[in-house]
């Protein structure tokens, strides 16, 4: 397996280059062990296609999404202004991210604060690469597998992106099966609104268990998602239901990387 | 002497003329009273909504009109649940079309005429047949709705916020509609029977296809009893409508009016986009401005100092307050709320109902004590608890589900903002992530210098 080819914006600038797109990795993609695999899978695809991209590396900072959703608007705007200064200094025009929370914040909440970029979720980015003929997928490994897609709230309802992830799954030659609550009616994994970072309030069930049970009902081989936090919640749910041997949870980027044997 | 009227007619005719004159006067008085009372209540509600903070929602007019046409007029979000949605459309279409009949009734009432629009001839026959068909459908739909609430006891019509009054309100609306439609059909049946008897004034104006089926029940009745029945149901129908009109401002049923402006003024930006608080923006910009003088005396802010976030209804925007008045307590929001589904205290419907209840309380206080009114109560805690607010995942399912485009999430976020920024009341774990974000640029305690470590890991 070859090394990942990843340049930082600083390195690019030093050598007088400008990337076509900035890959915004996000905190989960940088630090969470499971999410780091998603990051690596996505970079493998970018390398394979030969995309001229860069990351901010140590200059990246939290977008401020969890602070904003928790109610700490002050901290959010501090983060946003700081990030916008860095992004604008590098003259970033186009951003792709594997995290729907970063995607939503960068795309919708930064412009008013002075950060105007074309922002894509990696499912949209990969879909475009396929449409342009730059990325081809042979679905051999997934032939006959049942895959269901769990819609991340910040990709689906928040930004009306429902089709790009499903088109990618269909390219895998797999059978796409839908849960009862899907697309605009999809059920949250339980992590949004800064819930990821605290114990759930008192109730009679964990939200990720409710969602996992719904997914398991349709007996998929794979639960696919496009969000590092949904990944944590669904993986934990499958573990708690003791189904880890039968059902795997993967990000879209990982599925494509596997299909391409990267 | 008694046999002749001053106008040369017969005694019966005098009675009818007299009835018509007196009834016209009574009717016009009732109409003015009902209209005046309604206008007064409407004014109070508009005043209450205007207690909210400014918000500009007058942009993108064309999009707003088409959204209103789809969602309010076209009922596009109601039909997402096909069975209840279909029944709702029946009642809605029935309500709108039967209003043409109400217009005729009002004009008849004022002018002392009978079936003023019957000059339309064949078209009038068709109209009456259509009204009757719709009246029957509305009646059946309302009976099914009542059964869903009281016999089938569908889950979303219950819940802790569905206390006695909201349940009674719902039943009262349905029963009133059933009574109004029944009166309308009985009135037509009596009219049809009078037409058969060849009674004066009751000329043949249509086939009355539905009410004709009821005629048999009145076959043995005398002409005068039939007239009494016809007039009685006519009055019951129209007085019922006047009363219902004045019940609306106290009821969840007010949505029949507010749904249209409420959808028109919907948020048009992506659901995931929260507003950036302007008051915070000013301060943050100052901090990032290298030319700002840190020792300069703060410039006097214009007007009253603004709270960060919302503690009470007057901290919310007028649109959030309009949302509360538009809520018809259908519970579709709560039904899809992940927190509510898993037994947490949060119910988006309760957020809307609490906002309306508190706003009504503030409004009444202002009516009594003038604008400076305070009662040391607030929406936060006296109505909505911290536990409810902290249970929200901000997933937007409630916003997506609302048939009138209410945004309960925006209220939850504004209340959270007050908790965090004004009271520094955050669960310990959140205080931790705030510190981490501030210090390390990530919600976890990892060093920013390690952000690219994934590159060389396997």
Largest interface (CB within 8 Å) is between: A-B, 73 and 68 residues
Judged by helices, strands and strand pairing, the structural class of chain B is mainly alpha
CA radius of gyration of chain A is 18 Å
The shape of chain A is globular
Please count the beta strands of chain B (DSSP E, at least 2 residues each): 0
Number of domains of chain A: 2
The total of helices of chain B stands at 17
Secondary-structure class of chain A? alpha/beta
**What's the architecture of the largest domain in chain A, going by CATH?**
3-Layer(aba) Sandwich
Beta-sheet strand percentage of chain B? under 5%
Largest sheet of chain A: 4 strands, parallel
Major sheet characteristics of chain B: none
**What is the arithmetic mean of pLDDT of chain B?**
92
Helix content of chain B: 55-70%
Share of β-strand residues of chain A: 5-15%
Q: List the uncertain runs of chain A.
A: none
The termini of chain A sit apart by: 8 Å
CATH class of the largest domain in chain A, anyone? Alpha Beta
Q: What does this entry look like structurally?
A:
- The complex is a heterodimer of chains A (262) and B (458).
- Helix content of chain A is 43%, strand content 11%.
- Chain A is α/β, with parallel strands linked by helices and 262 residues long.
- Chain A folds into 2 domains: 120 residues, Rossmann fold; 123 residues, Rossmann fold, CATH 3.40.50.
- In chain A, the strands form 2 sheets. A 4-stranded parallel sheet of chain A has the order 2-1-3-4.
- The model of chain A has no long low-confidence stretch (mean pLDDT 96).
- Chain B is an all-alpha fold and 458 residues long.
- Among the domains of chain B are: 171 residues; 145 residues, Fumarate Reductase Iron-sulfur Protein, Chain B, domain 2 (Orthogonal Bundle), CATH 1.10.1060.
- Chain B has 17 helices and no strands.
């Amino acid at each position: 397996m070859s090394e990942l080819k990843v340049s930082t914006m600083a390195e690019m600038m030093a050598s007088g280059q400008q990337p076509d797109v900035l890959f915004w990795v996000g905190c989960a993609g940088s630090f969470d062990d499971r999410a780091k695999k998603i990051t690596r899978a996505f970079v493998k695809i970018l390398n394979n296609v030969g995309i001229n991209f860069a990351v901010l590396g140590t200059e990246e900072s939290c977008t401020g999404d969890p602070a904003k959703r928790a109610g700490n608007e002050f901290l959010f705007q501090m983060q946003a202004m700081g990030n916008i200064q860095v992004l604008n200094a590098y003259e970033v025009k186009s951003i792709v991210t594997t995290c729907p929370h970063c995607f939503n914040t960068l795309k919708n909440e930064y412009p008013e604060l002075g950060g105007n970029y074309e922002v894509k979720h990696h499912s949209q980015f990969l879909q475009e690469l396929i449409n342009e003929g730059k990325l081809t997928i042979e679905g051999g490994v997934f032939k006959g597998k049942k895959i269901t897609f769990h819609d991340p709230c910040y990709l689906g309802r928040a930004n009306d992106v429902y089709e790009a992830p499903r088109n990618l799954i269909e390219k895998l030659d797999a059978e796409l099966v839908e849960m009862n609550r899907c697309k605009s009616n999809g059920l949250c994994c339980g992590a949004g609104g800064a819930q990821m970072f605290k114990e759930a309030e008192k109730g009679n069930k964990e939200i990720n268990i409710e969602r996992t049970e719904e997914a398991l009902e349709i007996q998929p081989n794979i639960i696919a998602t496009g969000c590092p936090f949904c990944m944590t919640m669904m993986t934990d749910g499958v573990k708690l239901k003791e189904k880890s041997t039968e059902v795997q949870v993967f990000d879209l980027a990982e599925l494509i990387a596997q299909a391409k044997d990267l | 002497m008694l046999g002749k009227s001053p106008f040369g007619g017969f005694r019966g005719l005098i009675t009818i003329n007299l009835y018509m004159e007196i009834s016209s006067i009574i009717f016009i008085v009732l109409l003015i009273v009902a209209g005046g009372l309604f206008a007064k209540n409407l004014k109070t509600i508009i005043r209450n909504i205007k207690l909210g903070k400014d918000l500009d929602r007058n942009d993108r007019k064309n999009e707003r009109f088409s959204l209103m046409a789809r969602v309010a007029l076209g009922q596009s979000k109601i039909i997402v649940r096909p069975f209840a949605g279909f029944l709702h459309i029946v009642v809605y279409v029935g309500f709108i079309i039967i209003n043409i009949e109400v217009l005729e009734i009002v004009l008849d009432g004022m002018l002392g005429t009978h079936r003023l629009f019957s000059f339309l001839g064949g078209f009038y026959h068709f109209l009456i047949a259509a009204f009757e068909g719709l009246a029957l459908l509305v009646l059946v739909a309302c009976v099914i709705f009542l059964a869903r609430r009281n016999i089938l006891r569908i889950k979303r019509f219950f819940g802790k916020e569905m206390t006695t009054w909201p349940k009674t309100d719902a039943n009262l609306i349905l029963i009133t509609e059933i009574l109004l439609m029944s009166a309308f059909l009985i009135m037509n049946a009596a009219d049809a029977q009078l037409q058969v008897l060849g009674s004066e004034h009751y000329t043949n104006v249509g086939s009355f296809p539905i009410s004709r089926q009821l005629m048999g029940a009145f076959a043995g009745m005398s002409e005068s009893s039939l007239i009494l029945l016809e007039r009685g149901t006519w009055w019951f129908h129209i007085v019922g409508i006047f009363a219902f009109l004045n019940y609306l401002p106290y009821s969840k049923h007010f949505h029949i009016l507010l749904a249209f402006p409420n959808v028109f003024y919907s948020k048009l930006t992506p659901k995931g986009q929260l507003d950036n608080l302007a008051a915070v923006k000013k301060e943050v910009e100052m901090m990032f401005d290298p030319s700002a003088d840190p020792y300069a005396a703060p410039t006097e802010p214009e007007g009253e100092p603004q709270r960060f976030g919302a503690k009470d209804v007057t901290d919310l925007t007028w649109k959030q307050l309009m949302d509360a008045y538009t809520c018809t307590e259908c519970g579709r929001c709560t039904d899809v709320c992940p927190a509510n589904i898993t037994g947490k205290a949060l119910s988006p419907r309760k957020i809307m109902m609490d906002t309306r209840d508190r706003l009504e309380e503030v409004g009444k206080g202002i009516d009594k004590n003038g604008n400076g009114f305070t009662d040391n109560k607030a929406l936060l805690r006296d109505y909505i608890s911290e536990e409810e607010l902290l249970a929200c995942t901000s997933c937007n399912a409630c916003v997506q589900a609302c048939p009138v485009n209410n945004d309960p999430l925006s209220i939850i976020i504004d209340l959270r903002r007050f908790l965090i920024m004004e009271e520094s009341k955050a669960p310990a774990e959140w205080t931790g992530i705030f510190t981490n974000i501030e210090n390390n640029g990530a919600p976890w305690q990892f060093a920013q210098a390690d952000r690219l470590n994934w590159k060389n890991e396997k």
